[in-house]
Amino acid sequence: MLRRVGWQCLRLSQSCAKPTNNFGPVFARYFAEKYDAAYFDKLVKEKPLVLFMKGEPTAPRCGFSRLVVQILHMHGVEKYDSYDVLEDVEFKEAMKKYSNWPTFPQLYVNGELVGGADIVLQMHQNGALVEELEKIGHRSALLDKDKKDS
Predict the structure, then answer these.
(1) Is pLDDT at 14 greater than 80 in this prediction?
(2) CA dihedral defined by 124, 87, 3, 40, rounded to 10 degrees?
(3) What is the pTM assigned to this prediction?
(4) DSSP secondary structure string, 8-37?
């Protein structure tokens, strides 16, 4: 992932989550302006389903992120935006402030925070996740599975 800072591009990778530089306050101000509430509002409202997680859906880097990805997969949700919070420490910390939620993963549906792995699991178990997915026009694959089993 490339981030443009002034005239220089910095590569932010999993092996180097926090880039080293000599920008000092200029660099800090860039990230403070970059990751403001308007920035996150745009991310969570741009798509109907957004997941902020550790790793990627194809390669989660924590068990809780893996759990949410598996639950979404069970419901037949294949297309959603995801953001790896481990790629950028400033992004991760700003996201925590924005959401007022201290842990990851964080699942957003229609721009609203649903919660983390524990809440998504609870909603999956009590059927509330099916209703939440219907709000974005997604029919849960589990409903079709139930019909086949009957």
Answers:
(1) no
(2) 30
(3) 0.76
(4) EEEE-BTTBSS---S-THHHHHHHHHHTSH
